[in-house]
Amino acid sequence: MTRKKASLLTYNTKREEFESMYERNQFYRGLFGYKQKVKRNGKTYKYEKNGLMDEIPNVRIDDSVFIIKQKNKPEVKEYFNEWKPKVSHHLFAVILKQKEIIQKLQNNSKNTKKRGEHQDEQKEQRKR
What we know:
By secondary structure, the chain is α+β, with helices and mostly antiparallel strands. It has five helices and six strands. The longest helix has 13 residues.
């Protein structure tokens, strides 16, 4: 039987702690990224901004519950710590036995966009 170590991430947003919906949306955009269409001079421009979950392998289990690779735990902690006390989170060490979840995590790893030079730029934007 195949076993793989991973981390289970759960989080909860505290609506009353956010100053505005805009600020709350910043949290979600930083986590999941976003797409934007802008029309100017009869042309449509499309922009796509990656979020943390676009950049690290993960499997969504339920609302606010993900399985991530253990090696990505530090960057996940860092992101969520930036949003304390507005967002609480917990990371649990787990051992995966289900082949489907292990495969999804590995396949997601191949499809995940690489963290590159834009990583520092995105961190700066999250702080704003």
